[in-house]
Amino acid sequence: MVSELLLCSTRGTGRQGLLVRALFVVLICSLVPADVLWGVDEELDSIVAVVNDDVIVASELEHQIALAIPQIRDRGMQPPPRPDLKRQVLERMILGRLQLQKAKELGILIDDAVLTEAITNIATRHGMKLEELRTTLESEGVRYEDFAADTRLKLITTRLQTHEVIKNIKVTDQEVERFLERESGRLIERSDVRLSHILVAIPESAPAAVVKKAEAKAKDLVKRLRGGADFAQLAIRFSDGRRALEGGDLGWFPIGQVPSLAERATRSLSKGKYTEPLRSPSGYHIIKLTDFKGSGPEIINQINARHILIRTNEVVSDDDAKTRLEQLRLRILGGDDFATFARSHSDDTGSALKGGNLGWLGPGDTVSEFEKVMNALAPNQVSTPFKSSFGWHIVQVIERRTQDITDEAMRMKAREMIRERKADAAIDLWLRRLRDEAFVEIRLPTAERKATAR
């Protein structure tokens, strides 16, 4: 059934087919146990891993392997030998199971309202309504319930990582200043980089012999790369990183969000080149600069605008709000002061105190309905009443300008970039500790255990 479902999901053409294929990759990448995700009856088969008080059985492992193979091929790569693939998939399942156990222990749940909102947002990003997404998924052979279950558990994992790791990350003003001193020039030269990664993991407090063996393995992988071996294929076979099954592809990073270990590589490597083994608490890393993008100064068009907002409720209907604003607009066009009316009539208390002034607004600073109307106005022109998600508005454009916000934008983004960089490293370390501190027993057949231990 799994192979049939997968074939069906990748058979579509056009926008819907591509959407389902993209959504199906979400399922393939899932850390969710197969019996929860797919809702199939678990067969009485052999146990391949014990994870604390839980188990992973052979049918679950085979199920996830079957899903991983098409994903690898979709990326233009060949699946590794079966023992290597089995090891990678099993480790991913173990990490997923450990996170779900931790979330349950902490009482982290995702209710139906939050789940529905998340799936609705996914549908919106693909230009669909929720029911259209449901219909498209099911017409291509992907059960909506399976997709919803996967989404719920991904939200649980994200909330868990926020609770355990991200909320504790602090960024100081000094870090922001140092970041800008070091990176501001490079942010313009290389704005985004795409990285690939191979990790040879080392457990915490590992004896010297284990560390030496890991170092030798990492150096051997670099030697293979110099001999012409494909980076992605080596990552699939030998990497202990979370993105091993994606060929080690970490995706695109804004330059300021690059993990600390890879900072020098992003500045000095040529496209397609890789580092020597780099040591961190997690083990030895080989970083490849797959690609990069450059950018120049950030110039945007800004509008200084003011508005009057009337919200609807049980007492004020849409017609009431629209009529009141039409009357105010006529009086403003007749010479009355916009700011005075904003102070006395606007339900946006924050801007009302400033005569309705919203300050300088750039692209994306307001909701789309508001931005569309505002962009169409000439200076000093007052719009007709229009509706947004906040209520009914009239808006007046005071003036326009073209602004170089390169320095301002980099400063505004620096704090979040540093936080993202810290979060990535902290989550990796937290997952490694979660794995090291758990009781995990691999029960693959002896031959397969030896193969996966190479």
What does this structure look like?
The chain has helices spanning 2-9, 14-28, 34-38, 58-74, 82-106, 112-125, 130-139, 144-164, 173-189, 208-226, 231-238, 263-268, 318-333, 338-345, 349-352, 368-375, 406-437, 446-452; strands at residues 47-51, 54-57, 192-201, 249-254, 278-280, 283-293, 299-310, 357-361, 386-388, 391-404, 440-442. With 454 residues, it is α+β, with helices and mostly antiparallel strands. It has 18 helices and eleven strands. Residues 1-43 and 450-454 have low confidence and may be disordered.
Averaged pLDDT, please? 83
Give the strand tally: 11
Tally of contiguous helical segments: 18
- Unreliable runs: 1-43, 450-454
CATH class of the largest domain: Alpha Beta
Essential attributes:
4-stranded antiparallel beta sheet; 3 domains; alpha+beta; Chitinase A, domain 3; disordered C terminus; 18 helices; 454 residues; Triger factor/SurA peptide-binding fold; 53% helix
In short:
Helix content is 53%, strand content 17%. With 454 residues, the chain is of the alpha+beta class. It has three domains: 163 residues, Porin chaperone SurA, peptide-binding domain (Triger factor/SurA peptide-binding fold); 171 residues, Chitinase A, domain 3 (Roll); 106 residues, Chitinase A, domain 3, CATH 3.10.50.40.
